[in-house]
Amino acid sequence: MSTTVTPGGPVRRFAGLLHRRPYLRLAALLSAPLLWLVVAYLGSLAALFAAAFWTTDDFTGEVVKQFNLGNFQELWNQSVYRTITLRSVGVAAAVTVIDTAVAFPMAFYMAKIASPRAQRWLVIAVLTPLWASYLVKAYAWRIMFSGSGVLSWILDPFGIHGPGYGLPATIVTLAYLWLPYMILPIYAGLERLPNSLLDAAGDLGARTFRTFRTVIWPVAVPAVIAGSIFTFSLSLGDYITVKIVGGKSQLIGNVVYDNIGAADNLPFAAAVATIPVVIMVIYLVAVRRTGALDNL
Amino acid sequence: MRFTGARGRTARGSMRFVPKAKSFTRLACAAAVVLAAAGCGGGSGGAKAQAVPHLPVQQEIGASEGRLNLVIWAGYAEDGSTDKHVDWVHAFQRKTGCKVNAKVADTSDSMYALMKTGQYDGVSASGDSSLRLIYGGLVAPVNTNLLKNYRDIPSYLKNQPYNSIKGQMYGAPHGYGANYLTYRTDKIQNTPASWSIVWDKGSAAADHVVAYDSPIYIADAALYLKAHRPDLKITDVYELSQKQFDAAVDLLKQQRPNVNQYWSNYLDEVEAFKAGDNYAGTAWQVTANLAKTEKAPIGTTIPSEGATGWSDTWMIAAHAEHPNCMYKWMNWIESPKVQAAVAQWFGEAPANPKACKYAAKGFCTQFRVGDVDFYKRLAFWKTPVADCGDSRGTSCVDYSKWTELWTQIKG
């Protein structure tokens, strides 16, 4: 066919413009996600920080938008908030340690020992619990920890009482919930470790432990840290699991929640919410140098 | 007995007692107006009445406007969509021609916010949101002469601090319930005569006490102290001076080792009682009944000190678009048959004792309907404000302090 292409149709002209100006193309592509990142994501964080310096009027309950450090002074002066912060960090650290200990052998088996077929099934098995609702899993643990639950049933014949609801139950439940987030980065990290290195270590006479210490671990550390960022930060902000299996314990998240729901004191809730943010920033800065962030 | 109420109640049960800080602020505003008025006009007696907006009272129920928009607690306006046998809305629509559009609210806060939009004709307000609705000018006084069933409502539900101002009713009483002392009968053989079972260190329930996870629970401590520490001179457990409040907080801190968990979702509490993790604590009748239907050995009692409780009222919006339909609804919901249906679905005492004729056998006995002495032993929830409501002036501890200390009590 000999149809003549009419130059200068609006669509065509626009396409030409985009072709001639790559910057325009880039801007059009990136403006939406950037807008999201800057306005919705960083913007809300900034709003959070700003709100932390405001107060509520005792009399009217309205937020008073006037800079003052009262909320932070309150956080510092009341020992209860220090206790809660330390408790939350302790729980997050314990969850991370448990997850690392459980996930490492699992990930190593998946990456190095299992057949490719088994490997695929194992990855699916690790991911499957993520399809179930968080609440369903937390309540399942609640039932297991209850006085008539399966844990008591197992432990009672030995004369041991189950831990019941409390911090240990919270740590176990959180460790269960976040385990896939630890396994997957370690698995990915170990997969990149060439098998030849392990063979070489063996050929040079290194025993299992030495191979682990000098060959596997150094390669896996960034991956472990990458996983720990997930487990640590997810545990630090959690307030639902501790409500369900935590008995009478409360963590930072509960204080934030109570200040929004019960006390209607948004500025103070914002001030409390900055604690985990600060802790995570310190943590991230510390691990940045290990190269772990490249593994995320 | 049917306790299908559980399902209907879920949304509310879990959220219901999310403390209502806003009511504090509203009342504080109202208090401010009172003070200002007192300062200008002198004589605080008349000043309080001035703080309440003057709104006209409807004189007659006219023709149906064809629509009715309600803000309700879950389970208060069932149209058969939850359970096809539970339906008192369709009959109302057929009878009055008012098409009901019910919006379920989770908390008193959201109820207040929804009423503020001005799109609704009425609301089933709890004791801790009703006053701020009145002071905020969002609900109008109710002409009780237009309420057919009002004369059947026992006098102890009329002109109460949570539903009226100076003898002017602001709604139609709906129903009420207590926070019972609930206990495992296999762990605690004798019916506890005192709340000491949850407060004392060496009690039979030590380490297995369940306490309500809300600042309003401080009132339960005050209730105990009211009976056992006469030197504190506690008169109203929601109007505490600093000294009384501190004593209640101390009692709660001392109780902490006893507590095995704090509950906020009543279904969690059912499960914990059933599993035997909890031996004693506060619960609603519906919680105890649910645990019983699952064969848990559970008993409920109101000990010598009394108990805290809650009471709901149907109120009409100040600028209701369909006021006639709202009055028709208040008449409908307070009629004996409907009261029986709602109370049984929800698990509460109906305001109208005539409902007992239509309720399942034993229902009204269990919920102590018409029992004035029982009612008087309940301290119905209201939001603590700085204004003590008596000669102490504005020296009482307000709700923002209650919430702050609640975090510290939990540690």
Describe the structure.
- The complex is a heterodimer of chains A (296) and B (411).
- Chain A folds into 2 domains: 42 residues, no CATH class; 222 residues, MetI-like fold (Orthogonal Bundle), CATH 1.10.3720.10.
- Helices cover 74% and strands 1% of the residues of chain A.
- Chain A is built from 13 helices and 2 strands.
- Chain B folds into 2 domains: 220 residues, D-Maltodextrin-Binding Protein, domain 2 (3-Layer(aba) Sandwich), CATH 3.40.190.10; 157 residues, Periplasmic binding protein-like II (D-Maltodextrin-Binding Protein, domain 2).
- Chain B has 411 residues and is α/β, with parallel strands linked by helices.
- Classes of the chains: A mainly alpha (296), B alpha/beta (411).
- At the A-B interface, helix 4 and helix 12 of A face helix 2, strand 10, helix 10 and helix 16 of B.
Using only CA atoms, what is the Rg of chain A?
A: 26 Å
In this structure, how is the largest beta sheet of chain B organized?
8 strands, mixed
Approximate helicity band of chain A: over 70%
Based on CA atoms alone, the radius of gyration of chain B comes out at 21 Å
Q: How many domain regions of chain A?
A: 2
Q: For the record, what CATH class of the largest domain in chain A applies?
A: Mainly Alpha
Q: Which structural class is indicated by helix and strand composition of chain B?
A: alpha/beta
Could you say which overall geometry of chain B the principal axes of the C-alpha atoms support?
A: globular
As residue ranges, the low-confidence spans of chain A are none
Content-based structural category of chain A: mainly alpha
* CATH H-tier superfamily of the largest domain in chain B: Periplasmic binding protein-like II
Tell me the number of helical segments of chain A per DSSP (H or I, 4 or more residues long): 13
Count of strand segments of chain A: 2
The CATH architecture of the largest domain in chain B = 3-Layer(aba) Sandwich
